[in-house]
Each structure stands twice: as C-alpha cells, then as structure tokens.
Amino acid sequence: NFADKYINAKWCFAYMATSSAFSDATIEDSASSFATMRDDLCKFLIQATLIKSYHSFLRHAKPYPFSARASLQPGASMASFEHPFQRSALILIVDGALPAYLRKHIRFRRANELSADNLSRLAPEIAGELSLPDSLAMRDATFHALLDRLIDLDYALLMQRSSASAPIALSHMHVKVERLTDNAVRVLARDLGYIRRTLQENGETHAEILEQKFFEFFGFAANASGRKCAAAMAAQLLGADIFRFAVFATCQE
Questions:
Q1: Which has the higher per-residue pLDDT, 31 or 84?
Q2: Which domain holds residue 168?
Q3: Is 155 left (phi over 0), alpha (psi -120 to 50) or beta?
Q4: What distance in Å separates the CA atoms of residue 246 and residue 18, rounded to the nearest whole number?
Q5: Cβ-count burial of 124 within 10 angstroms (0-12 exposed, 13-18 middle, 19+ buried)?
Q6: Looking at the 3D structure of the chain, how many domains does it have?
C-alpha cells in the first residue's frame, strides 16, 4: 500500500531533494545542531508536501501520479506540469548569515523580510489567518503551523541566523533566485574540466548536453525548470561560499 511504499522510499525522496555542503560526521550531535534541524524540516516537508498531497488527490478522486521508474534514469525528461493537488516548496537554510553579496542572485531584502507588514502586503490571505510569533525558530511551538501556510507562497523561503549565537530562524519570504542558466552551467562545466572558457567553445550541441547534465548534477531531470531550476542555482551559489547549508525542493516528481 502507499504507507509501505512511502516508508521504504521516504528518505530517498528527502535527501535526493536536498543539497548540502558538509558531512554529517562533522556536525555536533545535539538538539540545537544544524543537522537535527535539517532532519526535522525534512520530516515536516515529507508530511506537508508528499503525504498531504497524496490524500488531496484521494479526496478529489484522482489517482496519485507516481513517477515511472524509467523517468528517474539519467537523461530522462520529466513532465513540467504540476497538478493543482500537489503541494510544493522551496526552502534555503544557511547555518549563519547569508552574505550580502549574494543578494544579486538570491533576493533577500527589507522588502521581503518576514514581518507583519510585509506579510500583509505580500500574502494578505495568510496575514488574515494568523499573526507572526515573537520568534520564528523551528524549535518554537508555533513554527510548524506558520511554515505550513508559508510554503504555499511562490518563490522561496530563507532560514538563517541573525547572529552566531542565535538559532536558525525564518528570515525572508518571497525570495527569488535569479541567475542566467548559461552562467551557472559554464561555471560547473569549467570546474569539472569539460570546457576551458566559454560554454559554446565545443559547439551548441555540446552546450545543450552540459545544460542537461547541470540539472542532473543537482538531482533533477535534464529538462528541469521553474522551482527545480531555482533550487539548482541556489545550491550552486551557496556551495561556492557557504560552509554549511541545505536546499529543500519538493516538487511533483
């Protein structure tokens, strides 16, 4: 049944959708550690975006569109359509403060800080249902209820520390991840030794293959777009400068 299939596959689902820049062996094993928080968020997203979506399909008398095994093989393409009963999310977590110079590509500014005024402006339907708690850390009792509403917003949510001693907390919503795909592919291809300088130096066909491999490198289908594209871009940007981070992307497949 679905429960058995879920239990057997849930960690594969969760960690294939997570990009991290560290080894768990180096993380302090405590309730306040980054790894513990990451794992708790992983469990929350499996419930909120996978299990709830499955039951949403059932309530609407629709079969859940499990991906075919062949579609998960390298080089395969995935359908870009996302069903209205499927919940998706994109969350960026940084163990520290996100450097200001990344604002060029990851848009976190005062205009989209998670505040009562910004919530009323950017998501009035959510602001009318709940009020922001004093703290937005995951260990707080009201965190999960708040996050369960915020993941339905477009774009990404950002979690980071306000200081070295502060807990990781939700800091920004409606976060856009913007970068030219060609630039992202070129950087990865150059770092891996497939090109020397330009993406097109070996021809357009080779450049197209490199773009497909870019998305596969980050665990997505070769034709990834939208939220999955943003997740890959964010993982690359954070991986270049951040010691410890995670990118959660939950999508149709």
A1: 84
A2: 2-72+81-178+246-250
A3: left
A4: 6
A5: exposed
A6: 1
Q: Is residue 235 part of a domain?
A: no
| 106 Ramachandran zone, left/alpha/beta (phi>0; psi -120 to 50) | beta
Q: Which two tokens stand for residue 125?
A: 């339907």
Q: Which two tokens stand for residue 90?
A: 């994109």
Q: Would residue 120 count as lying in a domain?
A: yes
* Residue range 165-202, pLDDT digits in tens: 888 999 999 999 999 999 999 999 999 999 999 999 99
Size (the chain), residues: 253
Instruction: Classify strands 156-160 and 169-175 as parallel, antiparallel or unpaired.
Output: antiparallel
**Two tokens, residue 9:** 């596959």
- pLDDT value at 57 more than 80: yes
Q: How does strand 89-94 pair with strand 245-250?
A: antiparallel
The identity of residue 225, as a single letter, is S
- 32: which 2 tokens? 């306040």
Assess if residue 19 is contained within a domain.
yes
Judge whether 133 lies within some domain: yes
Reported pTM = 0.84
Q: What is the mean pLDDT of residues 17-42?
A: 62
